[in-house]
Amino acid sequence: MSFDVALLFIQQGVASGLVTGSVYALLAVAIVIIYRTTDVANFAGGEFYMAAAYLAFFMIAMMALPFWLAVIATIVVMCIGAGLFQRIVLAQVALARGVAINLVIATLGLSYLVKGIVRSTGFGDTPRTFPSVVPDGSFTIGDASVSYLDVTILGAAVLVMALFFWVFNFTKTGRAMRAVGMNRRAAQLVGINLGRVEMMVWCFASAISGIAAILIAPKLLMTAEMGSVVTMAFAAAIVGGFTSLPGAVIGGFIIGITENMVGLFVSSRAINVAPFVIIMLVLIFKPQGLFGGALKVRKV
Amino acid sequence: MIKIFRTLPKLASAALLGALIVGPQAKAQAPAAEPGLTATTIKIGMFGPLSGPSMAYGFDVVNAARMYFDKINREGGIHGRRIEVVVEDDRCTANDVVAAVKKLVEQDQVFMLNGGSCSAPVVAARDYVVRSGVPWVMLNASGDGALYPPQPNIFGALSISQRAVGGSTIEFATRQLSAKRIGYINHDDAYGAWNLEAARFQAAQNGAELIVESINPAIADVTAPVLKLRAANVDAIIIATYARPAQLILKKAQELNVNKPIVIAVNAIANLRQLVENVGSREAFRNVYIQELLAAAPGSEKLAWVYDLYKQSYPELAAKPDHPQVYMPYGIPPAMVIVRALQAAGPQPTRAKVIAAIEQLNFDSGVMAGPISFSPTDRAGQKASIYFRFDGQAMTPVPGVFASRWTYQGQ
């Protein structure tokens, strides 16, 4: 391989990896905020993402709603749906003093339910897309070709993540979420409504998944199986440190870029294996993830 | 005279003894009634994806086979017997295919099987069908894993085998596009390995170099394989994946300004209109060729009878958008094989007679690009394709038929 080709591979690999990585990052943030606040690993995260894409598709392509209206409506519906799931299912499971695994199984159940619903509509049987609001076309940065859609996806993803960080760190709601994540009992004692906060966390997470879906659907296409991308989001969260929001974002970009680098310099066959090799390496050398902080041991 | 009277008891005893010995054998040799046969009917067990994500690969293929059987029934049946079909939904999953086949053989007691639209799942049913001895003519599954090595009672690849897909696309790229360096994108599973095997064979025979990028069917970002083929300066790219990865590759090829001819194998074209819509830009189709297994363009005069028959048989379905589905006509040749074999087996058909008859079949279906041909050592029926230049809207036929030359060598 010549130097010029290697340089091209690096530039294009990073450019494309940042775009797919931004979607992994958004989904990883959605997973991490739920885990950090409620200790539930949400295995339905991929199906939130998939359902939002089909919902937006239905509103844009079938109902001919304006794009902006469809986006708002999708986010609202996702938010309400996830909030109701938390209130009706998870809160009941928790009330029954079920072990944590019961909550995880409940999310798995939701993922199958959502997938089944989308399949039953008939829309999920064929790969589909919906019109991108960004015009076709691309430009080059160095040797890398970057489409207008790529830039939009990356820019929007960064904006959404920044907005969420602001909410999480500098607003009363965000502080309540963090407090619940740190110590539920203490948060309750200082007057935080636990149920309301947990519902809002699920609502936020599904909204973020919905935004990720609307951004990426015109690029990666929609299928009923598209939620399997959540595996990459979990990989990103583990690499970044499962409780760290910046870690989830960095992890998403690392996974996205590494997939391309492995594909370009090792083998296309290894693309889907690469994230798991990274996870193993991280777990060996930094078990808490890159930004997971020091290991904490709870004594009884 | 006295001598006769003396010998009569001996003869009678011998005859009685002979009857005792030969009788049961003679009874055992009497033709037993084969399951699924009555004086007026022949029961055929059909299965295919009638629901689920792979429905486009087989729903209308099943419909096409049924309408052909109905046509034969209207014309008097086969040696006075009507074809009766029992249909099961296999959803293109291994578990459902095996369950469907077992039900059809054991509960419905069919005479023979006609089903399967997806390659990997049909392989799961292979061992059971071989043990059962029931003749099985696949629908449009390439089913290489069940056809190679040849099994005594399994016949398929009536549309094409994956090996023949690979061989034919390479034949087209080398003969028609004069490609010497060919980029080949396939799946990194058994399905991809099958088409790659014959692609490599044909490339070596035609003096071409193959640059292979094998990808996971669930891949999200196809930058790496497309960019590597662009950097390798290939003369043409062949995409032998399923629909979604193929569409991602076409989009990416446009983004990365790949200006070499792209040949899309038949596996990727479940819905041509959706393909164009998903890729999004007509510009992406500036140098694209698509593989077609039919004898002529879908909807052309040569195949008009198939589409007309579909409209007559399923008027409500035909009125819906996206129907008939792209692969619909592929259901006709398997039904033709069954009808011809049953006719050849005579008025008293047995499964063995039908299997022997299929082994001798060699005919032009008028539906597929190449002849349908089997032999005692070859269970894959059709090995040729035609090609169209496709600009995202119009299909311009490329003259000629491009066949795979790969043959099973007992590997």
From TrEMBL, chain A:
Protein name as it appears in the record: Branched-chain amino acid ABC transporter permease
Any one Gene Ontology cellular component term annotated for this protein: plasma membrane
Subcellular location: Cell membrane
InterPro entries for the chain: ABC_transp_permease, BCAA_transport_permease
Lineage: Bacteria, Pseudomonadati, Pseudomonadota, Alphaproteobacteria, Hyphomicrobiales
Keyword Cell membrane: yes
Highest taxon in the source lineage: Bacteria
Keywords attached to this entry: Amino-acid transport, Cell membrane, Membrane, Transmembrane, Transmembrane helix, Transport
Keyword Transferase listed: no
Family: Belongs to the binding-protein-dependent transport system permease family. LivHM subfamily.
Membrane topology: Multi-pass membrane protein
TM helices/strands, residue ranges: 12-35, 55-82, 94-114, 146-168, 199-217, 229-255, 262-285
Main location class: membrane
GO molecular function, one term: transmembrane transporter activity
Biological process per Gene Ontology, one example term: amino acid transport
UniProtKB/TrEMBL annotation, chain B:
GO BP terms: amino acid transport
Record-annotated Leucine-binding protein domain positions: 41-388
CDD domains attached to this UniProt entry: PBP1_ABC_ligand_binding-like (cd06343)
Keywords of the record: Amino-acid transport, Signal, Transport
Signal in keyword set: yes
Source superkingdom: Bacteria
Signal peptide start-end: 1-28
Protein's UniProt keywords contain Transport: yes
Family matches, as PANTHER family: BLR6548 PROTEIN (PTHR47235)
Family to which this protein belongs: Belongs to the leucine-binding protein family.
Name the record gives this protein: ABC transporter substrate-binding protein
Lineage: Bacteria, Pseudomonadati, Pseudomonadota, Alphaproteobacteria, Hyphomicrobiales
